[in-house]
Here is the input.
Amino acid sequence: MKKAKIRNALRNLYAPSMALLPILVYPDPRLHTVAKPVATVDSRIAQLVDDMLETMYEAKGIGLAATQVDVHQRVIVIDTSEERNTPLVLINPALVWTSPETHLNEEGCLSVPGIYDGVVRFNEIHVQALDQKGQSQTVQAQELLAVCIQHEMDHLLGKVFVEYLSPLKRNRIKTKMIKAQREDAR
Ligand code: K1U
Ligand code: ZN
Here is the structure.
């Protein structure tokens, strides 16, 4: 049994209300599914949010979109704090304002492990979304939080950050990911 599976089994034994979800890896075609809006923030969505937070913290990511765990609903979790204790939940997020200034930022993705590259994003954004309790919130984001929200909102539209790169780079990454997955499966 792989280490991650043993860790997951132990975690589920001691904290049965949470679960680690498998993260889809590029070029899995399910990453290109367009997510649907959440109709009601009910206990099923609350459980999904808890599981996504658990999965994001375990993977040492700063964000995770439901698309990445093969759930095609507009749900995002983020924590860009140093202390890893400030979770942000965005359900049905919508950009309501973007700054005229953009910036090239280094990005990574839990669905494209080991790959980092530059993507141009708005410097500052305002996002309207529901929180985990179904309450409306407006988040004003800059710097890493703004980059991360834009990256996660792309996931909900079925877009992975490598699609901003040149076809040459993207194909090299695709080949590398397929090879790594074949070796992992051995
Ligand atoms: O969507 C994801 O897969 C999560 C992704 C979020 C993200 C990181 C950096 C820029 C934009 C979006 C990650 O958490 S990748 C891993 C990571 O923790 C990280 C990578 C680069 C910079 C900072 C953090
Ligand atoms: Zn990502």
